Amino acid sequence: MSLKAQITEDMKTAMRAKDSVRLGTIRLLQAAMKQKEVDERVELDDAAIIAIVDKLIKQRKDSIAAYETANRQDLADVEKAEIEVLKVYLPERMSQAEITAAVQAIVAEVGATGPGDMGKVMGKVKSTLAGKADMGLVSAAVKAALSQ
After folding, report:
1. What is the chain's mean pLDDT, rounded?
2. Whole-angstrom Cα distance, residue 18 to residue 31?
3. Least confident span in 15-19, 31-35, 128-132
4. What is the sign, positive or negative, of the torsion defined by CA atoms of 113, 119, 124, 130?
5. Where exactly are the transmembrane stretches of this chain (predicted)?
6. Crossing angle of helices 20-40/3-17, nearest 10°?
7. pLDDT score at 70
8. What number is the average pLDDT over the span 101-114?
9. What is the rounded distance in angstroms from the CA atom of residue 101 to the CA atom of residue 107?
């Protein structure tokens, strides 16, 4: 079953269960998917949907930080609940050790020597690790590998 079909089935299940948090989050995800399809006139595949989910999770994390700074724990809790719903649609994430090993292999493959090669390495890393790893951790690993 494709990820898109799974999301649709989960929405139906949430409707039947009257799970308003899950239903609202899935509807936001579907709206983002539909917007991307209309804007780019394409049919989304699983990789594109994972990228959308990653983006939505990042937005939620940014919102949580802002809400906690403003002492609005009630709103931060809503965002955290939405993140938990969205995480279901992501594949298993790589560990920090796996990320570091993959980044070092890519740095060697590209022949990068210093921080000036960061763009070249990140381009290759994004295409290789997209959806498999937290890109914030990947970026830190690339910086560490190039600063040695």
Report:
1. 88
2. 20
3. 128-132
4. positive
5. none
6. 150
7. 95
8. 81
9. 10
